[in-house]
Amino acid sequence: MDIISSLKWRAAVRQYDTNKKVSSDDLEALLEAGNLAATSMGLQPFKIIAISNQDIKKQMVPMSYNQEQVSEASHLLVFAIETDINEDTIQRYFNRIMKIRGLKSEDLENYKSSVTGYLSEMDSETKKVWATKQAYIALGTVMSAAAALKIDSCAMEGFLADEYTKLLNLDSKNLMPVVALTIGYRSELEQMASLPKVRKTRDEFVLEIN
To answer: Has residue 1 got a pLDDT over 70?
Structure first.
């Protein structure tokens, strides 16, 4: 499948075959796709929480406005932003750069100063908005990767973030859920997936400036 065919095949699947599970290898591929997603300055201010535990998924259904796909899907991926983005966050990132690229601290002084200055101008709410945007970039990357693997998915904003936070004990990890993604394989009862996509024409969607 080429990328366009994969995206045409993709649909927001809400009815899953409960007998089919995403393999551990495919799950790891999706998580790695999320890890490889582009993020501002490479800081990755979020985590992906991969939930396969059926009891926990069932508990999350009423927290998700009774959307049954939360429990019926093979996995639920919760994208949660970091709520405490500070100097330690920046230092950990630069430690990774030095380790992976074999650089010294002095080699990165200007870049580190730029990153520190950029984040220091943000208040806590602005940082949350910025981090959420980064999580959504990863969400799109994971969804595209899932389509390439012919794994169905459905992005979800309809959930009670405070309830997710309490159940998953995210406060203790300085995390806040912002969006979720069910993954699995469509049920034979799923009707929307077989319908033609409704999208703007190219002329309506694209503005070219030559």
So the answer is: no
